[in-house]
Amino acid sequence: xxxxxxxxxxxxxxxxxxxxxxxxxxxxxxxxxxxxxxxxxxxxxxxxxxxxxxxxxxxxxxxxxxxxxxxxxxxxxxxxxxxxxxxxxxxxxxxxxxxxxxxxxxxxxxxxxxxxxxxxxxxxxxxxxxxxxxxxxxxxxxxxxxxxxxxxxxxxxxxxxxxxxxxxxxxxxxxxxxxxxxxxxxxxxxxxxxxxxxxxxxxxxxxxxxxxxxxxxxxxxxxxxxxxxxxxxxxxxxxxxxxxxxxxxxxxxxxxxxxxxxxxxxxxxxxxxxxxxxxxxxxxxxxxxxxxxxxxxxxxxxxxxxxxxxxxxxxxxxxxxxxxxxxxxxxxxxxxxxxxxxxxxxxxxxxxxxxxxxxxxxxxxxxxxxxxxxxxxxxxxxxxxxxxxxxxxxxxxxxxxxxxxxxxxxxxxxxxxxxxxxxxxxxxxxxxxxxxxxxxxxxxxxxxxxx
Length: 451
Hints:
The chain is built from 13 helices and 20 strands. It is of the alpha+beta class. A 10-stranded mixed sheet has the order 5-6-9-18-11-16-4-1-19-20, with helices on both faces.
């Protein structure tokens, strides 16, 4: 018995020594070499374990983002103090928020300072700083593009007008487009606009925060680029873009997001968004079944933040109770992912977002039909022509994301308890393309094409 214990102890010490040796070797590698180690030669099970671990870390980082104004300011002050202690000589001139400045609280000055913050710390500038590996900015960007996982093989067949039709044709899910640090920045930007909306510092139709009088109703919306009317209003305007009403223009940071998605082959250069709507969900908020209005051309996309959840699709979605829906297909939307809706997935299948389990933000980017542009609309010069999409063949080949779950599981109907007596009026919810509820683990395998 003593011999067995000694042998087991020896094996345990040997294993620990091996692990320490591996860690020491990893510390000597450059970041691009570590990327090579983590991107080649793994079996499907190992890939799934790695994906789950990385996803858990990213979720933890983003969920630590403070929600309240006081928490955000306290976080900023703490971060600034920490950086100051590290090296006061190397610390660049800090960029303060409007609240930290405290000198001028007019809407114009607040907007100017906010836009300055975005321009000086946009998404593009992060690529080179995040990959300090001796490569130039373009090479680092190619590496980032190669890490984007793209799923385009969604299938769910229904009989439409007597024909078997894949109602999900045209859907695409892109993960890894925005990293945790970028998500943090975007979410903080959204909260900044929410604060300004509550103070009356945005145009009247830009910000909407209805009273939460029952479950599923009352999510905050912020519109940029155009004023979209959810239902027939008091002036008799029908649902759609109101051409003689105006909202605030696209923020600089959101334009950076658009340029990123076009350049990284998430959205086509032929359909560059010129409007967007932000949805801020609290627990229980939802979006009922709908198809997005055709005042907006296809494709359009939704970016998800803070909480991973599902979006339901199908030609016949059912309302079970307040915030509870049924649909034949449920697609998980990881945080930082971009869901692109086009083809049958945008025009035949309806989609909905059941009541979310926790705070969530989505940003839906859409291009207005030319015949529906606001009368005084002026195109954003930097969005008129965007540099050609990156050719990922110059770096690591792009990975294609294939879901390895059984088809019966992937398309299993999502059923929720509730009565069928719940009735939704036309003007209760904006018909927008967003995302939905539940925390399903997304297990994937990645097929690598030949170089």
